[in-house]
Amino acid sequence: MSEPRVVLVTGGNRGIGRTIAEEFLAGGDKVAVTSRNGDAPEGALAVAADVTDSDSLDAAFAEVEEKLGPVEVVVANAGITRDNLLMRMSEDDFTSVVDTNLTGAFRTVKRAITNMIRAKKGRIVLISSVSGLYGVPGQGNYSSSKAGLVGLARSITRELGSRGITANVVAPGFIRTDMTDELDEKQRKEYLSTIPAKRFAEADEVARVVRWVASDDAAYISGAVIPVDGGLGMGH
Ligand code: NDP
């Protein structure tokens, strides 16, 4: 078994982020999770931080570094939706989603790479969505933010690839969480009919891929978009 690493997962108090944190914990790593309410799965260090606020993220990283050590794996998972058709989407609906999902990932990664560059190693995993490259009606804000993560990962790869740092995107399709529980029956049926696998996934199916792409086995994979979507977005 490899040495335990320090892993930080944003938005790790519930949903996919929590399952990702549990997956790293099960693999023996030291895990910190951030969220606005500061909750965490058992065994993880819980730190309150808002990804829209650089100062709170900076304080969270400082606390994790002090209690667990420098962060070697960062998973930018915190995300929100504010769906609406473009005609009805307010500018605030657009900018707040981009601020959390894309700029939030930028803030998280920017803080994380300071130590990664020094250590000459690091794993960055950005949680995007099938929506980012496939496009979804009513998700102009969300799709834009999730597509932006691909550009971010690829730029990081070109900037920092020579420093032992990889940056990859994991793009889930429909995963059973609070976010998808909000769908009504009609939407659920419509979505299921478009997914080749004819089912939604469980969060651990995403979490295992995240842990793998952050492992030594995936050292030569960077700038990739890894879909976990039952075939929904294939070709995109
Ligand atoms: P949830 O709504 O269950 O969880 C979202 C997480 O993000 C929570 O931990 C929440 O914590 C955190 N978060 C939101 N805003 C902020 C903020 N400003 N600062 C810090 N933390 C924040 O979502 P999911 O688990 O479903 O989604 C997780 C990620 O996966 C998201 O990026 C989402 O876009 C993506 N995804 C989800 C899919 C799905 O089917 N569920 C499909 C494709 C992608 P708190 O509110 O307590 O601060």
Distance between the termini: 36 Å
Count every beta strand, where a strand is a DSSP E run of 2 or more residues.
Answer: 7
Structural class by sheet pairing and helices: alpha/beta
The biggest beta sheet is recorded as: 7 strands, parallel
**Number of discrete domains:** 1
| CATH topology annotation | Rossmann fold
Features:
single chain, 236 residues, alpha/beta, Rossmann fold, seven-stranded parallel β-sheet, binds NADPH dihydro-nicotinamide-adenine-dinucleotide phosphate
What features would you describe in this structure?
The chain has 236 residues and is of the alpha/beta class. The protein has one domain (6-227): Rossmann fold, CATH 3.40.50.720. It contains 8 helices and 7 strands, in the order E-H-E-E-H-E-H-E-H-H-E-H-H-H-E. The protein has helices spanning 15-26, 54-67, 91-119, 130-134, 140-160, 178-181, 185-194, 203-213; strands at 6-10, 30-35, 45-48, 73-76, 122-127, 165-172, 225-228. A 7-stranded parallel β-sheet has the order 3-2-1-4-5-6-7, sandwiched between helices. Helix 3 links the parallel strand 4 and strand 5 (122-127). Helix 1 (15-26) packs across helix 8, helix 2 runs parallel beside helix 3 (91-119) and helix 3 (91-119) runs parallel beside helix 5 (140-160). The structure holds NADPH dihydro-nicotinamide-adenine-dinucleotide phosphate.
Summary, kept brief:
InterPro entries: KR_dom, NAD(P)-bd_dom_sf, SDR, SDR_fam. By secondary structure, the chain is of the alpha/beta class.
Note the topology.
Layout: E1 6-10, H1 15-26, E2 30-35, E3 45-48, H2 54-67, E4 73-76, H3 91-119, E5 122-127, H4 130-134, H5 140-160, E6 165-172, H6 178-181, H7 185-194, H8 203-213, E7 225-228
Parallel strand pairs: 1-2, 1-4, 2-3, 4-5, 5-6, 6-7
Helix pairs in contact: 1-8, 2-3, 3-5
Bound molecules: NADPH dihydro-nicotinamide-adenine-dinucleotide phosphate.
